[in-house]
């Protein structure tokens, strides 16, 4: 039973609680002079405290998060008929003017973005955005920021509109699952009742997710967001967690402990066939596909403490188990992108108080190492598709938050989930 408790700790992390000269790892990306953008709210005065202002503020925040703009805000509502004096803008060294409005309609919410290039005096982007619900205005603002970013041909920031699925505790022994934007401003409550943990997106389109529900034993479900269908897949004694999904969505990496010993399994979704991948007599948990899905990275206590290892995706073979991390003595969560691994390492050993877990970034091709956090409990790191953005969960001072690290821009942002403890997340 002690093994089960330990492997659950490794999986949950905190239930309650190239070369050395690698340009990709530079702290600040050299773009030259960043374009200055002035953002204006052209919503009617009657809507000043409504969705036009909210959309405007979210767009301003998104543009700042990208690190690709010098953002100026216009605190007053500007009428849509106001003349644009491009000579004044150019003298103030403003390159772009973004005008935003939003209006509640019978069908939901409609928003308009007009983007002007002050240097040419031309409108370069005019686009309407619609949504069926007013509370999803953040999603429209994220789309606007992506479109403006694409106009200046800056590095991709499509992660702004990628959804987060997370589980949080509502009371002891119970948790809910929600789908949200990265700021936790938009939230859709999906699963409730009982203990629902470890949600994992089922596909790239984010139309469904897997999660574990505790019934008479841990049980894996697949929930379809478009239809509301909740399908029971498999159960196991001890523990059961879906930790990664293949690109084609047909393969699941599972952590299971049917005999009180946690191991990594491959689950074939179409056939329901289960294949055990690890054979170590200790604890193996939290597997992820790496290196074009040719290998699998996971957490194991093979050194007498949790650390990061890798095996071929076909399964464990003698002599083919590689240690991936050589810093830290309790590394209980990891994620990979290309030649880089981000992992969580325990750095204190308090018996009766919350311990500190910090995130580190390493290169598998060199001895490069960079600490990303400095305090609190930082868990479940996840790379975005761009490889330069990391999301994670931060627990500190009895509060949980989603953290965003922009690696090349020296930016770290926290978005708290008020009054709740986040259990786990995926994005």
TrEMBL record:
InterPro entries: 6-blade_b-propeller_TolB-like, TolB_N. Transmembrane segments: none annotated. It comes from the Bacteria. Residues 25-122 form the TolB N-terminal domain. This is Tol-Pal system protein TolB. The lineage of its organism: Bacteria, Pseudomonadati, Campylobacterota, Epsilonproteobacteria, Campylobacterales.
């Amino acid at each position: 039973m002690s093994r089960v408790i330990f492997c659950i700790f490794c999986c949950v992390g905190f239930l309650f609680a190239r070369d050395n000269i690698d340009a990709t790892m530079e702290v600040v990306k050299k773009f030259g002079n960043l374009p200055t953008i002035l953002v204006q709210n052209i919503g009617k005065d009657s809507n000043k405290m409504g969705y036009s202002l909210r959309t405007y503020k979210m767009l301003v925040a998104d543009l700042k998060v990208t690190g690709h703009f010098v953002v100026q805000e216009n605190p007053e509502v500007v009428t849509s008929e106001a003349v644009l004096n491009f000579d004044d803008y150019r003298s103030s060294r403003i390159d772009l003017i973004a005008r935003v409005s939003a209006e509640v309609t019978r069908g939901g919410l409609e928003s308009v973005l007009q983007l002007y290039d002050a240097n040419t005096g031309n409108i370069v982007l005019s686009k309407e955005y619609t949504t069926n619900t007013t509370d999803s205005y953040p999603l429209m603002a994220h789309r606007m920021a992506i479109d403006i970013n694409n106009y200046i041909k800056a590095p991709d920031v499509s992660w702004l509109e990628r959804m987060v699925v997370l589980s949080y505790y509502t009371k002891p022994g119970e948790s809910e699952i929600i789908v949200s934007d990265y700021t936790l401003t938009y939230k859709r409550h999906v699963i409730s009742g009982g203990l629902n943990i470890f949600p994992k997106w089922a596909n790239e389109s984010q139309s469904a997710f897997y999660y574990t529900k505790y019934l008479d034993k841990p049980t894996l479900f697949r929930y379809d967001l478009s239809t509301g269908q909740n399908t029971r897949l498999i159960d196991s004694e001890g523990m059961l967690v879906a930790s990664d999904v293949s690109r084609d969505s047909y393969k699941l990496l599972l952590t299971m402990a049917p005999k009180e010993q946690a191991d990594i399994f491959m689950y074939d979704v179409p056939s329901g066939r289960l294949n055990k991948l690890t054979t170590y007599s200790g604890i193996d948990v939290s597997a992820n596909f790496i290196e074009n899905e040719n290998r699998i990275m996971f957490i194991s206590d093979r050194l007498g403490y949790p650390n990061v290892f890798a095996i071929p995706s076909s399964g464990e073979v003698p002599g083919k188990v590689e240690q991936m991390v050589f810093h830290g003595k309790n590394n209980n969560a990891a994620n990979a992108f290309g030649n880089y691994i981000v992992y969580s390492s325990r750095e204190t050993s308090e018996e009766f108080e919350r311990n500190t877990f910090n995130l580190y970034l390493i290169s598998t091709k060199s001895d490069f190492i960079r600490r990303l956090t400095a305090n609190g409990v930082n868990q479940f790191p996840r790379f975005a598709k761009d490889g330069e953005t990391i999301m994670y969960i931060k627990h500190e001072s009895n509060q949980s938050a989603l953290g965003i690290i922009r690696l090349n821009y020296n930016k770290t942002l926290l978005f708290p989930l008020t009054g709740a403890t986040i259990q786990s997340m995926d994005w």
